[in-house]
């Protein structure tokens, strides 16, 4: 049998490694996004049949993000009824990463999620479109409810995952604590106070009681 690789690109753009290639495998080095495309494998039988089979497949060269995704705008504590609003961003890659929000390990409902347009990396603005790396950003906004703290008492886990095909998967997680409302404050303790009055040259010192507004005071006969 013999193996023929047919691609619509210049083979001089990368290096074929003959020692690591054989009738069923081809090993390439120094690949770039430019060699992404459709590859064909043709298998031919020797005489006397000379049967031929041709199979094709697409190959995409991926440039992975340099760091994991990051979450911004999410505070460490929220009360039930407050609104959580945050963003998740992934650094430039090719193709851009797919971002997914998870709340307590369950994918967030679509109405809570906002997908923003991909942004071209500044350094790639003059590159051909097929070579440009792009960053990804996705937002989330929802009202905190008691159910968000039920599975992990007092805490809500917010996670953002970034994935590219089956080659890359990274995530970042933040834990949000439930902030309990503060109860009514105890009334301020009554405290004595004194004032001086002057009547016809005689100094009179009288004790009064200062109490919080609304407190009933009962005086003896």
TrEMBL record:
Keywords: Disulfide bond. This is CD80-like immunoglobulin C2-set domain-containing protein. Residues 81-115 form the CD80-like immunoglobulin C2-set domain. InterPro entries: CD80_C2-set, Ig-like_fold. Residues 172-193 are annotated as: Disordered.
């Amino acid at each position: 049998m013999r193996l023929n690789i047919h691609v619509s690109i210049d083979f001089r753009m990368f290096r074929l490694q003959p020692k690591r290639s054989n009738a069923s495998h081809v090993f390439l080095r120094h690949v770039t996004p430019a060699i992404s495309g459709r590859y064909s494998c043709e298998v031919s039988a020797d005489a006397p049949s000379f049967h031929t089979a041709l199979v094709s497949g697409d190959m995409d060269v991926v440039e992975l993000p340099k760091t994991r995704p990051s979450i911004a705008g999410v505070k460490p504590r929220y009360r039930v009824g407050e609104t959580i609003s945050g963003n998740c961003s992934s650094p430039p890659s090719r193709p851009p990463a797919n971002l997914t929000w998870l709340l307590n390990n369950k994918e967030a409902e679509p109405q809570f999620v906002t997908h923003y347009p991909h942004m071209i990396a500044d350094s790639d603005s003059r590159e051909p479109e097929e070579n440009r790396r792009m960053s990804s950003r996705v937002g989330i906004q929802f009202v905190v409810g008691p159910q968000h703290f039920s599975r992990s008492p007092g805490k809500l886990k917010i996670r953002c995952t970034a994935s590219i095909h089956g080659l890359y998967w990274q995530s970042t997680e933040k834990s949000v604590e439930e902030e309990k409302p503060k109860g009514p404050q105890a009334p301020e303790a009554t405290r004595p106070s004194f004032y001086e009055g002057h009547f016809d040259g005689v100094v009179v010192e009288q004790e009064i009681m200062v109490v919080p507004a609304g407190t009933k005071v009962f005086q003896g006969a």
